[in-house]
Amino acid sequence: MDLNQLQERLSALRSETVDALAGVASMDELRRLESQTTGKSGTLGAWMGTIKEYPPDQRGEVGKALNQAKGELTKLFKEAGERIKAGAAAAEASKASSYDPTLPGVRPPVGSFHPVTLVQLEVEDVFRRLGFLIETGPEMESEYYNFEALNIPKLHPARDMQDTFWLTNGKLLRTHTSPVQVRAMERHGPPLRVLAPGRCFRYETIDASHENTFHQVEGLMIDRHISIANLIAMMKLLLREVFGRDLKVRLRPGYFPFVEPGFELDMSCLICDGGGCATCKQSGWIEILPCGMVHPNVLRAGKIDPHEYTGFAFGLGLTRLAMMKYGVADIRGLNSGDLRALVPATRTGGPTLLTC
Ligand code: PHE
Prior knowledge:
Layout: H1 3-22, H2 27-37, H3 43-48, H4 56-97, E1 112-113, H5 115-129, E2 133-134, E3 140-141, H6 143-146, E4 172-173, H7 179-188, E5 192-201, E6 213-223, H8 228-243, E7 249-253, E8 259-268, E9 285-294, H9 296-301, E10 310-317, H10 318-326, E11 343-344, H11 350-354
Parallel strand pairs: 2-5
Antiparallel strand pairs: 1-11, 3-4, 5-6, 6-10, 7-8, 8-9, 9-10
The protein binds phenylalanine.
């Protein structure tokens, strides 16, 4: 480009810069624009590098024009910087003057939660939105509700699946939350949607993954035409809410006397997404909960006609879920009273949970 063209381009650059500066609101934006314009590899910088391409007798003129433009542009940027700084200071000042000391403050989240409490509240929240009642049953339970009403008669080998703490008064410490199924059927009748979280006990030897005291949450839905498809849909929804993403599920046959058919539900591994890793023992799947269609004998025990109604039930291990979600490697830490097992309210969106 000859000297005339250069001069035209310089004056165009000047007016483009004036326009652009009018829209710049922050110092970051300003610096970016400045380096694109007068910076070494910016527009003007590139033109500076072309001086030696002009005939020797023109180089003086070219240099002068470029330097003058640079001076003008630098001044424009400096003024814009001052304007932005002054604006920010004024905004701060007006914020300070509109401060109302009589307004109530924001209450900071206080305290901490046990990981099991957190997952319990989360699961309750999901099912409450689906119209489930939250029920609790007694921890000291009768043999009838814990076993017989659940289609596990005396001397049935299935009683050995759950080693039981028997009490001297003839009762027992419930081995699962399933007794709440029949209690809820009796209390409410069909149709029924119930969620029953609670503490359970088994006569177990304690190690890193076994405790004699743990938490489960029982789910039960009874209505006309309830099918396995409803069960699968509900379980997918639960896992999506708890883990924050869609997970694949699969059902394997599983035996529990109070469901028929009974299943073990697996979800795709959270770590490898089904590809196979150490956590899922290369299978791509993680066993997450047992479930099934409520056995007709259990419906009968709850005074519900199995020819008219069907239902599904599931038993989610809350303790295990909390361990997975909060990365707790040793179950013993959770019941030890060790405060380091707790999750500070500041990490949980505390105030909303505190109101639960
Ligand atoms: N109550 C069973 C247990 O603790 C779990 C379960 C619940 C299985 C509901 C099927 C349906 O082992």
